[in-house]
Every structure is written in structure tokens, then in C-alpha cells.
Amino acid sequence: MSTVDEEIVEERDGNKDQKKKKGKENLKQRAYLNSLTSIIDFAGKQITGFIVSPIIVSGLGGNFYGIWQMLMQMTGFADMADTRATQVLKWTIANRRDVASAQELQREATTALVVTGFILPVVLIVGAIISWYAPHITKVDEQYYTMIRLTTSMMIFSMVIYKIFDLYECILRGMNLGYKRMGVRAAIIVLAGILKVAVIYMGYGIVGLAAVQVVIALVTGITFYIIVKKAVWWYGFARTNWPKIKSYGKLSGWFMALNGAGMIMNASDKILLGYLAGPLLVSNYTLTIFAAAAVESAVGSVINGIIPGIGGLYGKQEYEKVMKARRLIFSLIWLLIVSLGSAVLVLNQSFLALWTGEEFYAGDISNLLIVLIGVQGMFFETDGSIINVTLKLQQKVYFTLASSLVTLGIALLLIPPYGVAGLCMSILLGRMILSIGYPIILRRNMKDTSPFFQSRLFQQMIGAALLFGAAIYFNDYISAGNWFTLFLYGGIVTLVAGAVYWVVGLQSAERKEIMDLFLKIKFFKKDD
Predict the structure, then answer these.
(1) What residue ranges are annotated as transmembrane (predicted)?
(2) Which burial class, exposed, middle or buried, applies to 202 when counting CB atoms under 10 A from its CB (0-12, 13-18, 19+)?
(3) Nearest Cα to Cα of residue 41 among 165, 169, 214, 205
(4) How many CB atoms sit inside 10 A of residue 329's CB?
(5) pTM, whole model, 2 decimals?
């Protein structure tokens, strides 16, 4: 047994712990607080990226900026060797936090830490292989081989640091206490942006950017450790055993398989585009998707605050409530993403012209496909998160792997002749497997026998199609020559699209559910 295995933390005052544990959890209020925390993080990330990205593009040049984007995705592939034990921990806690004792939860934390420790050497070996071959994949000149390998190695090291400390964030989110870190991650993101600008101005290039990632990984990890120690009443470690570790390893294996399949689908787009069409197109693609990715992140920030609460409902086998929460989430997604997506379709070209230069705009067709990818992703990712709560991952892995392989196959055919548009088409078509498959899995797990296609779905899709069509039409007539005009037009388009979709895209019952949700939220209360 390791030292960690043998560490037994003394139980705190039993009555006090039980009182905290069994206190009624206000899911709506916590969902609001978690969402608010995510929105603050999102705002910090987007504002920092908005300011810092042009400086990095200018400092590195279009070609090396594309290479930097490729390296970030490549180093992520070392994560495929990780068993994702911390993810098992997060969803196990989300599932069992209302029924498990303090010692049981501590044992879960210990087991996750031990399994993570077992796999780290493998991650480092895979990372070393990626670092060695990175210059060949990015197709740089031989004089840059050492620089690319050093950069990649540092990025792998930062990823390992994140893996170790990820335990604490997963505990926090599993306990539905993500709001306890409100503003902290945003502050760290701003710090990272300042450091990135500094290393670019000092001429350290991509090596300096990689060094910043190492520093930020350490700062983030230590910060989350402090927050968890203060906020989680049962925090500590208890003795685990080999059968428990094996059980975690088996379940972690499914998370690892899921992560690997997902990496092929979600984290290989820039690598494929760069390898098949060149790093400069990666720069165009990365900058064109900035606004659409911001929209997806904004909507995701709201939704991610709700999902951990659903874990508690599933743990108590309240399946009807889970599906009701899902319907409400989907209504919110439609309303938010159609409103904001319409603004992206109308103004993204103007945004890029003001931000980095119109030469980085990938074109109207690619812009539309990117927005549709964002819409599609929000729905299957939400279903995927709910499936994770059930810890029944086998079928999800199969669907994700099939989707990844189909996406990869289509991409190899379409990227050489069509560039960014070909990549987007391959992603959209390949992910259709998940758009159909994930709801099937979820309905089976929740014993839902209602019709698969319902009138509200058709109304939601028709409303979205009408508004997106109108946005494409007005794209030819609306342009912004300065930042004030851009934000003014963006606000107007978002509000008008939202108001129209509220009436045209949502049924009266869905509008009532959304209104009821907001009326029950105490917006200025900092706890539940």
C-alpha cells in the first residue's frame, strides 16, 4: 500500500457533518450559482482571448500561430492514455453524494488518486513520442525541430500537472459546489493572458507560451486544492483496497475509451487541416470560429451549471425529473444559441475585419457550417453529460468511436479540395451519429417511452432555420466599420432574434417553464 492508501483522515464532528450532508439542496439556486460562475469564467476567457489573440498572431505570424494551434491539439492526444479516474470520481460523487457517508466519499477520492498515479508514467511516455514526432506532423523546417520538441514537452508537462490537480475540481463539481470558485478561474485566465503578452513582447515565441502554461497549471491546481479544503465538508482521504481500485480502473477504462474516441472527433480538426492543407488555413479556421466558439461557450456555461444537480436526481432514481430538466435545458439552448448564432452569421466577417484582418475570414459557407456545428454540439454534449452521470458508458463509447471514424474518413476526402469548408462538412456529417445515438441511449437509461420526434422539436428546428436564413440574407447588407457599431448591431440582432424565436420557436408550455425557472431564482443570493 502507498502512503496515500494508508492515510486515514479523522472524522469531523458527526452531527455537524450529517446536518450539512442531509440539508435540503436547492437545485435551481445552485444551478444558477454554478452557471453564473461559468459565465464569469467564460467572460474572462473571451475578453482575455479577444485582447491577447491578435497580439499572439502578430507576434508569431500566421504560419507559426497555426503551428501553435496544432501543437495544443497534439499534446492533448497524450491525454488519451489517461484512465480518466477523476471523471469517474466526479460522476460517482454527483450520483452518490446524497446517500454516501463521509468515509465512503473519502475512499472514492483516494481510489481516484491512486489510479491516476498508476497511469501518469504512461501519459509521459506517450507525450515523449508526440514531442519527438511533432516537427514532422507540423511540417516545419529542420532548423525549428528542437524548438518544436521543447515546446511540446513543456505543454505535456503542464497537462500532467493539470491531471494531478484535476482531482480537486472534480470533487467540487461532483458536490455541485462549482460556484465556490466564483471569479477565481477568471482571474487566473487574465493572469495567463498578461504573461502570454509579456513573453511575446520579450521574443520568446511559442516556447514562452508553453512556459506560461506550466506556471498557470500550478497556480490553478494549488488554488483548487485550497478551495476544496475549505468548501467540502467531508474532504480527506480514507484507506482504499485493491478490489475498489480494480473497479475504478474498469470504469475508468470506459472513460478513457470515450476520451480517446472523442479526441479523434473533437481535438483533431486543426491537426488534420494543418497536415492536409497547411498551417495558414489553421489560422483562418481558428480565428473564424472564435465568435461561434464564444457563443457555444456562453450557452455551455449556463448549461454546465445545471448538469451536476441532475446527478442527484438520477442517484435517487427520479427519472421523470431528469427528463423534465433535460427538456428545459434544450429549450434554453434553442433560445440562446439561435439568438447569438444569428448575430455571428450577420457580423462575423465585420468582427474579423476589425479584430485581426479580413484576410483571416474563412468565408460565408464555412461561417454557416461553423455555427451549425455549434448548434449540433450543444445538444449531443448535453445528452452526453447526462449519460456520464449514469456511469453506463459502453454504448456511448461505441457511438462516439463510430462518429469519430466517419468524421475522419470524410475529412480525408473533403479537406484537400475544399479546405475549411470541407473540414466543417465532415464534422457536421460525422456527428449526426451522436445527434441520433445519444438520445437513444439516454431514453433507454431513463426508461422514457415518449415519442422520439415530437411537435415541439419540429417547431424549434423550423424557427431556427427561419432566423438563420434571415441572418444569412442580411449578412450582405449589414456591416460594421467600427467596434461601437459592431456591438450595437450585435446587440440589436441578438435581441430581435431572441424575441422572434421566443414566439415562433417555443411552445407556450416551454415559455412558461423558462419563466418559472427564472422567477424561482434568487439572483442576488450567494448561497443556496
Answers:
(1) 47-68, 112-134, 146-165, 186-204, 210-228, 328-348, 368-390, 397-414, 420-441, 453-474, 486-504
(2) exposed
(3) 169
(4) 22
(5) 0.73
